[in-house]
Amino acid sequence: MEHFDVVVVGAGLSGVGAGYRLQTECPERSYVILEARSAIGGTWDLFRYPGVRSDSDMFTLGYPFRPWRAPKSIADGDTIRDYIRDTATRYGIDRKIRFRTRVVGADWSSADARWTVTVDQEAEDGTVERRTLTCGFLYSCAGYYDYESGYTPDFPGIGDFQGTVVHPQFWPEDLDYAGKRVVIVGSGATAVTLVPALARDAEHVTMLQRSPTWISPVPGRDKVADRLRAVLPARAAHRIIRAKNIAFTIGVYQFCRRRPEAARRLLTKLATRFLKDEQLVREHFTPSYNPWEQRLCAAPDADFFRAIRGGKAEVVTDHIEEFTPEGIRLKSGKVLEADVIVTATGLRLLAFGGIAPRVDGVEVPLSEQFVWRGAMVTGIPNFAVCIGYTNASWTLRGDLTSRLVCKILNHMATRGHPAVVPVPDGTLRERPLLDLSSGYIQRSIQEFPRAGHRSPWRVRQNYILDAATTMRTDLDKTLHPAKREAAKANVDAKAGARS
């Protein structure tokens, strides 16, 4: 049976970044990356719908060790996918990836201080072989989306519709929407991306929303970044641009959360500036929730607003009564006729890529655990998970987490600990791991581990504070050598968790 010091699950943005950190900061450790799909890229290889792009700038979504050189700050999916693949090739990380290898089981043995990882490995001919390998440390970089299924409500009469129904997560390569009437159900980031992309070729595009979403125009290119890149070496320019954008993003988030009324006025003013219609903005672009209670949708170069003002697209705020052969009948009685209906109704969350860790033969109830430093989980020795920020680029915390994992591995080697597990000192009060009111989060967050009310159990949404403290963490204080009793025991603090 093969053995590795570290097994990384997922070859997307996080997994490739983890590979770089492991081979540069723990060069003596062996590692392998297990990828269920047949390509590098993760989310950026999965999503192929028209217009798919980043919703944060690439100077912070990109790797700190690999300067972003493409012209656009908000980049399209193909460019991001190429960037991840090129990074993996440049640093030899691609040679560590095993494709079509899906993790279906992970069992920790306290007696052996190692994981037994069970995988289904698919051959080129489609046959699947179940195999096992072992490792000392398991690191899940599979994100928290369910790659196998998106979320679609149970729409009455959907089977009666005579046109084409498609979910953005599984966009058909041969879908022809040119000259056709398209209705997009939903108003999140995916819908806001699809509207201007489809409007270029469709006869007309309608975005149907139950309630408005906050949408902010942002520059597609960073003019300051362009000037800096023209006069400075690539790495120096990248560091400065990255710092600038981090500070700006955190500043906007803090402004929205601390001064919600002022943020509402600003976003309303921006929407009115591009749409030139105050009534339209009041009716369709003024949400009941405050900015950043849900993720703020970005419209590069105001493309979403321009599509609406140009007449190729519109927004309708109403509820669905039923699907009909011709389209969708709304509660108001209006019928939206369509040839293509896109159900941009959200994603499903899936904790740790579907891995259900077992410790000494007992499955660990994830919803009863706490997350330490946004990385390790109570009750599960030698296990970490990569979870990015909700209010900033995923990679910011993703890279911090990978560096922290390397620090932990080196700490274990220095102390002679074969296994460690985080254990709280005192009672913790529960906080949600992802603190947003968005529907896709609220539907599934109860299945995830919890955050705590205080550091280092609090999952902050502030990269500057995390960057200043994460790598200075006193590992001896909270990470305990994992014994059989410690591994099986749940957190003593759990008794007061719901108080």
Automatic annotation (TrEMBL):
Superkingdom: Bacteria
Pfam family for this entry, one: FMO-like
Transmembrane residue ranges: none
Cofactor requirements of the protein: FAD
Keywords carried by this UniProt record: FAD, Flavoprotein, Monooxygenase, Oxidoreductase
Signal peptide: none
Coiled coil location: none
Full protein name: NAD(P)/FAD-dependent oxidoreductase
